[in-house]
Amino acid sequence: MSEERAQEDAKLNPEDLENHVKVEAGDAPGLPGDRSPDDGHGAPQETHLYKRRWMIVLLFSSYSLCNSYQWIQYGIIGNIFTRFYDVEAFTIDWMSMIYMLTYIPLIFPVTWLLDRKGLRVIALVGTALNCVGTWVKVVSVRPDLFAVTFLGQFCCSLAQVFILGMPSKIASVWFGSEEVSTACSIGVFGNQLGCAIGFLLPPILVPNVEDMDELANHIRTMFYITAGVATFLFILVIFVFQERPELPPTQAQATARTITPEEYSYTASILRLLRNKPFVLLIITYGLNVGCYYAVGTLLNRMIIRYHPGEEVNAGRIGLTIVIAGMVGSLICGIWLDRTKTYKQTTLAVYVMTLVGMIVYAATINQHIWVVFITAGSLGFFMTGYLPLGFEFAAELTYPESEGTSSGLLNCSAQVFGIIFTICQGKIIDKFDTLAGNIFLCVFLLIGSIITGLIKSDLRRQNANRLAKEEAEKRMLERDYGATSQISSQPQTSSSQA
Which residues contact 134 (CB under 8 A, 6 or more apart)? Predict the structure, then answer.
């Protein structure tokens, strides 16, 4: 999108002018003459927060939900789709892993496109691909059309590349420094809620019936519902989603706006990030944690059915419990970070508790089904709750680099480890048992916890906002002192002399 179009989309309306709020003391408007119109650097610039920012993040969260729902749509009833399409269980596993595989080579060009064209273009392409994929699935409901349904899932996996790295970018572009972590958590919240619905609805909409025609009708109904929702969200994005607000929400974002596309080198940015040792360690630890989550989600149906035959619906409900607990964890962690700014301490604590939760889950999965619900929920609270922590910690460690680039590298690592863990754990479960597969994941979570403890907490974005506040306060003091000196130096009037 052109700069003119971005400005046109972001024009103030009367309601926004009436309801806008100043950010903090450090983000106060600069004095006349403070700003250089040529370079935009130096003095603090005017900042505003707009009410529409909540509409933007909620719309993003909604279409992220629709896409992530389809990630586990096949896997959670894998035994049913295996019978309907007459394929192997490992083939159905690829219906989830294709989300991971397409992300790895495409995230870099998509992140470049995000930096060049902005949020709106990425949102339009992502929702369009998601919409197309859902309608392809609608026409694939025949036992001999597995290739068509795979094509539909492939389109949705392409859409995911345009969605997964956006939460931290939206939070940075639209939200104040005291709410970026909460906003990022809301963005990730949609992805998690979509996974939760993906665990819950397919076992309910597609029961394990013997009659193939009846089964086809159930599958078709599920696909039609998904396509309708995806189409509605695509239309909303066309008419509602905006590029950015007219005025930046923070001084850090104001500084970022002064970097023109011609000055920005995507390759150089990646190389700088890969030379940032704390961020490289975070890439590894994030990949290990989220890769374990992907493996558990993809293979959950197989793990539960092995110990609890005929419990497809409860397997979905256990997946739902994992994600819902994680959503609560995400929101709590986001609010906690906004208030305390203890990024490393919170990330390390959540990581260690994820390891503990995985050990308890592995030890109790063969117990009564209600015990599995409790232990799986405890695991999900920390494992899924870790997702926004990684995004926000990365944004702090890598400022002023693009949030899209840093989150893209995190997600790329997660997809690589997700594919490796899913394949390896699946083979271990088939050759040995579920306990051995879960112990395999516990080992890597232990390694991730140790590496997390080694990450240096260099909060660059917080430091930038702090320095901007100090500079603004300094300029206000200088102005007040100058005004006082000017008044005291004025000659007394005749009346005052009298």
Answer: 70, 152, 156, 223, 226, 227, 230, 231
What does 132-187 look like in DSSP terms, one character per residue?
HHHHHHHTT-STT-HHHHHHHHHHHHHHHHTTTT-HHHHHHHHS-TTTHHHHHHHH
272 vs 269: CA distance, rounded Å: 5
Confidence (pLDDT) at 310: 79
Torsion of CA 308, 69, 227, 55, to 10 degrees: 150
Residue 310 falls in which region: left (phi positive, over 0), alpha (psi -120 to 50) or beta:
left
Report the candidate in 104, 92, 54, 76 with the shortest Cα–Cα distance to residue 194. 76
Mind giving me the DSSP string for 30-73? PPTT-B-TTT--BS-----B-THHHHHHHHHHHHHHHHHHTTST
Contact 92, 302 (CB under 8 A): no
Tell me the residue type at 454.
Answer: L
Instruction: Kindly tell me if the per-residue pLDDT of 296 is higher than 80.
Output: yes
Quick check: 28 pLDDT over 60?
no
What does the pLDDT read at residue 9?
Answer: 44
Which residues on neighbouring strands pair with residue 21, listed in sequence order? 49
Q: What angle do CA 386, 387, 388 make, to 5 degrees?
A: 100
Q: Cα separation of 136 and 400, whole Å?
A: 41
* Token pair of 174 as six digits: 């639209």
The ranges assigned to domains in the chain are 50-250+265-475
- Distance (Å, rounded) from C-alpha 81 to C-alpha 90? 12
Nearest to 352 by CA among 391, 322, 386: 386
Angle, vertex CA 58, rays to CA 266 and CA 14, nearest 5: 95
Contact (Cβ atoms closer than 8 angstroms) between residue 137 and residue 227? yes
Q: Where are the beta strands (DSSP E) in 224-284?
A: none
| Residue 419, token pair as written in the block | 């594919």
pLDDT over 70 percentage in the chain: 82
pLDDT tens string 475-498: 777 776 666 666 666 665 544 444
Q: How confident is the model over 436-477, as pLDDT tens digits?
A: 899 999 999 999 999 988 887 766 666 666 676 667 777 777
* Torsional sign, CA 145, 149, 150, 152: positive
Residue 132 in this model has a pLDDT that exceeds 90: yes
What ranges make up the beta strands (E) of 288-393? none
- Please enumerate in sequence order all residues whose Cβ is within 8 A of that of 251, keeping only pairs 6 or more positions apart, or say none: 26, 27, 44, 45, 47, 464, 465, 468, 469, 472
Model pLDDT, residue 216: 93
Fold of 50-250+265-475: Growth Hormone; Chain: A; (1.20.1250)
Report which DSSP code applies to 343: H
Phi, psi of 463, deg, nearest 5: -65, -40
pLDDT band for position 244 (cuts 50, 70, 90): confident
pLDDT at 480: 66
CB-CB contact of 298 with 415 (8 Å):
no
